Amino acid sequence: MKKLYKYLSIAVQAIFLTGLASCSQEALLETPEEVESGNIILPNQITAVMPQPETRTAYSEVSGVLHTQWAENDQIAITPVCMVEYTTLYTVDPSTASGSSATFKKTSGGTSNTTNVSTNIWGVYYPGNSIRSDIEFMNFTYSGQVQKASDPMGHMGKYHAMRQVLTSSSYGTFPAEKAISFANSDQSSCLKFNLSGMTFKNPSKISVSYIENGFISPVFYENNSLNSYYYDGNSSYNGSLSTAELSMGLEGYGNVSSLTAYLMMSNQDVTLYGGGYLLIKVTCEDATYYTKVKVGSADITLTGGYYHSITAAGGWQEDLNIDDTDYAFDGEVVTLQEASRGNGIDLVIMGDGFTAEDFTGGEESYYTSIMMQAFHEFFSVEPLTYYQDYFNVYYVKAVSPQGYGDSQILQNGATGNGTRTKFSTVFSSGSTQIRGNRELINEYAKLALGANANERIKNATVVVMCNIACHAGTCWNSWTGEVGNYDYGMANAVCFCPLGKNDENRRQLMHHEICGHGFGKLADEYYGTSYPTTTYYWNQINTYHGYGLYRNVDKYVTTSNASETYPQTTQTTVYWHDLFGTVNQYESAAVESLGIFEGGYTYVRNFCRPTYDGAQSIMNHNTGQFNAISRRQIMYRVLSLAGEYTGKIWGTTQELNNFLEWDRTYYLPKKNSSSTGSQTAPMAPEIYPLDPPVMVQGEWIDGHFIPAE
Fold it and tell me: How many CB atoms neighbour CB 328 within 10 A?
């Protein structure tokens, strides 16, 4: 068994990824006992000397230590976190910096004209021209890197991100000029490849993935992560999603006998579980070459924020089979129904945290039973019950190396995220958010969608049932911001839903998270204690409405803050204004008590919802049924995706009358029937609201969603 070695720094203070430290002495490094072909060398805690002021854009390597120094036009943003909008910024002037600290000056255009801004928390971000908040730090993506032979370190500055938070009371009032040290900050990692042993003919790409027990294990990360962050409750962010492969383009290398590449990575720790191997792939003009770099029996951690390297000097081959498991059924698709009306709307269900034994028994297996529950419960609420025939429904078998095991179940989610599941789902402690490897999830969904999968995936609703009993759930919508001739919420949805605290709780989770957020593109109607103080979020909701998103909430403009641009909210100006005064009498207490109720979109002020708290709206308390504007949006999206509605007809007489007639004929009689009653029981008081849906904007390229930078 080959032994793994680490370079260990014994400098006074090791702090940064590429290993920056605020010490002035040279780092002393241990020398490996041996270096063998195929060994993996993982420098952990490398410390760089900084004879120049701190920065991340100009790089050099001396004796295994990575050096950085200021480059022209560097900028670091400093943001007072107390602000709702991140507009008060400070930037660094490199010409005034010295040693391991720098002087920061307030920029023009901030929200305050005074020298001092009072706050308890300041965020410091690099590069300041693109990262000015925690959300932007977490949205920062490491995809799209290209290393040029003429400047092999030139790309590193663009993909090196840093974030520091200052909470000391001494910074309660931030002076116009203040020196700051960046010790112990969150920042990118770097993985260096030392590859030799063959001739690479015009290499164009290098990739790395980790293989464990025959599985491609998604141990890497495309985005940054923060253990604690300052989040406004409504912004889009990627949630530091795990990925199965990291890659980087190569340019201008010609024919080379060795290859050195520097790949910038997320600030997260990467754990390589014992017994597996790194699969390195180099795409060349004549062929694609693979080699394995084995890991011993012990786990190895590539510590986030540091500089690591891998050495592989042989074992290259053109064909490398990585699927050496006995789980031939992994990826198998089961068709539950095919649409008998319309163009066919895609619903794909799969599970995470289900091990091989959960598939025993074929059609009677535990996995199948969960898939069938999800199938039936999705269509157990109107108007989806009525429109079930418009859907194609599939489930895909997905085998996890491990289940969730003894994860500690919390009131609002689950911890114990060290287990390794197929889609790397992670439960956020202290909230109900779930995130996972959406790229891999969509690849499994495309297995069900046939030859046109790359197009169909763009509007598919993908359900991931997590094999753990807790109250949590999150819908991640991937959208391009495309309007054109469409206004029904064109977006792919990946919806994470656990099994709930009981059967009723699971149905509530599915109706709210999957039917409401995932398919209906509806907003949360509940509200907390915070509220936006500017028109930024009013403009945001106007924009979303135009895309066919979040039509069940609207601005709440009072007489005191009304203007020509934002008229006072009344029954004639609110978004659902055309539902008042119809023959269906929605405003009647006997029907729905339709009205304008302040509080919604997670905010207690400045937004409103269409029904009061006691109405048990699914998008408010997870209970009851969808209210009228929500039913209308779901119906509109069904008929638009089915091809029965063409063009942007929302709000037309035709569309409104179609909804009113359907509702009067099929929904209201059922609702008022004493035998039917409420479709879901009230939510237990100890169950907290679910996290808001996450809107991630980007573009689809060859069936893959690429988040915007």
Answer: 8
3-state secondary structure of 700: strand
pLDDT of residue 531 exceeding 90: no
At 117, list the tokens.
């801004």
Encode burial over 103-141: b for 16+ CB neighbours within 10 A, e otherwise: bbebeeebeeeeeebebeebbbbbbbebbbbbbbbbbbb
Give how far Cα 18 sits from Cα of 15, 66, 157, 336, Å.
Answer: 9, 6, 11, 51
Peptide bond into 401 cis (omega under 30): no
Which pLDDT band holds residue 266 (cuts at 50, 70, 90)? very high
Q: Is the pTM of this model over 0.70?
A: no
Cis peptide before 383 (omega within 30 of 0): yes
Q: Where are the alpha helices (DSSP H) in 592-652?
A: 618-621, 628-641
**Cα–Cα distance, 550 to 198 (Å, whole number):** 55
Please give the torsion angle defined by the CA atoms of residues 341, 347, 350 and 352, in that order, rounded to the nearest 10 degrees. -160
Q: Which of 669, 634, 608 is nearest to 512 (CA)?
A: 634
Where do the H-state alpha helices sit in 286-388? 366-378
Judged by phi (left if over 0) then psi (alpha if -120 to 50, else beta), residue 48 lies in beta
What does the angle CA 554 – CA 560 – CA 566 come to, to the nearest 5 degrees? 40
Helices first, then strands: H and E counts in the chain = 10, 39
Q: 161: pLDDT confidence band, cut at 50, 70 and 90?
A: confident
3-state secondary structure of 356: helix
Residues listed for the chain: 709
Rounded CA-CA distance 394/348 in Å is 5
Distance CA 156, CA 247 (A): 14
Strand-pair category, 146-148 with 245-251: parallel
Asked if residues 287 and 216 have their Cβ atoms less than 8 Å apart, the reply is: no
Q: Report the SS3 class of residue 655.
A: helix
Three-state DSSP state, 201: strand
The string of pLDDT tens digits covering residues 463-509 is 999 998 888 889 999 988 776 678 999 999 999 999 988 888 899 99
Q: Report residue 329 CA to chain centroid gap.
A: 28
pLDDT score of 10: 17
Report which secondary-structure segment, H or E, holds 495: strand 492-498
Tokens standing for residue 466: 């997590």
Q: Is 647 exposed, middle or buried (0-12, 13-18, 19+ CB in 10 A)?
A: exposed
Q: Which residues, 6+ apart, have CB-to-CB distance to 278 below 8 Å?
A: 40, 208, 209, 210, 211, 272, 292, 293, 295, 310
